[in-house]
Amino acid sequence: MNLKRLCQRLMAAGLWLGVAASAGAATPADTFPNRPISIVVPYPAGGTTDALARLLGNKLSEVWKETVLVENRPGASGMIGTTYVARAKPDGHTWLLTVTLFIQAPALYKSVQYDPIKDFVPLAMLARATPSFVVGGDVPANSVQEYVELVKKDPAKYGALGNYGTGSMSHIYASLLDRQAGLGVAHVPYKGAAQLTTDILGGQVAAGMGDVNSVLPHLKSGRLKVLAMTGATPTSLLPGVPTLTSLGYKDFEATGWLGLFAPAGTPPEIVAKVSQEVAGILQREDVRETLRGVGIEAEQNTSQPEFAAMVSRDAGTWAKLIKDANIQLD
């Protein structure tokens, strides 16, 4: 065999081996996870977000046989922990479990140091938790329309509307309802849904935009009444309760959610693997029942691409609603 032909055969063999090696090469997802995963919760321990993170972490630890830690990094309305994750190495081992305020913050604060769209990749939508329009059990109104008529007839007695925090989704939606219904009510902000619920029960305020978790224990006793829900569709947690959208009010479709995110640049193979595993966990009845017990619905119909599109779309929606309500927190 002459030298030229030998070189050609060697080159061909080398090319074939290169293709074979490439075809069998491991992707980042094949060895993931290869060390403990950290789920950063940008809020204090003990809340709904923290509870969901710990439930999810335990289930993933069982599946992957790898430690999944929950790391609470509260402060600055969630911005401290969120900024920490934005700057983390995008190898799939650091996640953020957060709420809708994550995409609302840039419109509420001037000092936000992260971009919710550019600095993160959505992994999974975990649950829905939308505000509900609640009145005290002694308030003589069984529908939103009856409440509106009541306020206009006796504003001194019924003309106060509570929310569970300045700049919260509860505040934004309460302001929107106020404007559309022409109520002209006083807005009373509270430090959390529990305090708001307590004052509605005590009659200090007649109504408010509460959350399902705080409302549920008081419905059967009749001490509270839910007249409507926000969001595009009714919730199974409150069967028979209409949405404000179905009653003719506008711009109440954007839902509250709890979601899982990773730093931008996380390999797409890892994003897909995490998304698929989390979706399987959310299908489990024991998980769904646990979440129902704290007033949130496990999400099982929104895919990772759909959630990513929702995050981008809702960021613009909330920015407009916040601007229209003239809410600025710094």
Q: How many DSSP-defined strands?
A: 11
Give the number of helices: 12
Helix content: 40-55%
Residue ranges: pLDDT <50 for 5 or more in a row? none
Largest sheet: 6 strands, mixed
Radius of gyration: 24 Å
Whole-number mean pLDDT: 90
Query: Structural class, from helix and strand content?
Result: alpha/beta
Helix/strand order: HEHEHEHEEHHEHEHEHEEHHEH
Shape: globular
Strand proportion: 15-25%
Give the distance, in angstroms, between the N- and C-terminal Cα atoms: 81 Å
Enumerate the strands of the largest sheet in spatial order, edge to edge or round the barrel.
Answer: 2-1-3-10-4-11
Describe this structure in words.
The protein has helices at about 5-25, 50-65, 80-85, 100-110, 145-155, 155-160, 170-180, 195-200, 210-215, 270-280, 285-295, 305-325, and strands at about 35-40, 70, 95-100, 120-130, 130-135, 160-165, 185-190, 205-210, 225-230, 255-265, 295-300. By secondary structure, the protein is an alpha/beta fold. A 6-stranded mixed sheet has the order 2-1-3-10-4-11, sandwiched between helices. It has a 5-stranded mixed sheet with strand order 7-6-8-5-9. Strand 1 (about 35-40), helix 2 (about 50-65) and strand 2 form a beta-alpha-beta unit. The longest helix has 21 residues, at about 5-25. The model has no long low-confidence stretch (mean pLDDT about 90).
Short description:
By secondary structure, this protein is α/β, with parallel strands linked by helices. 42% of the residues lie in helices and 18% in strands.
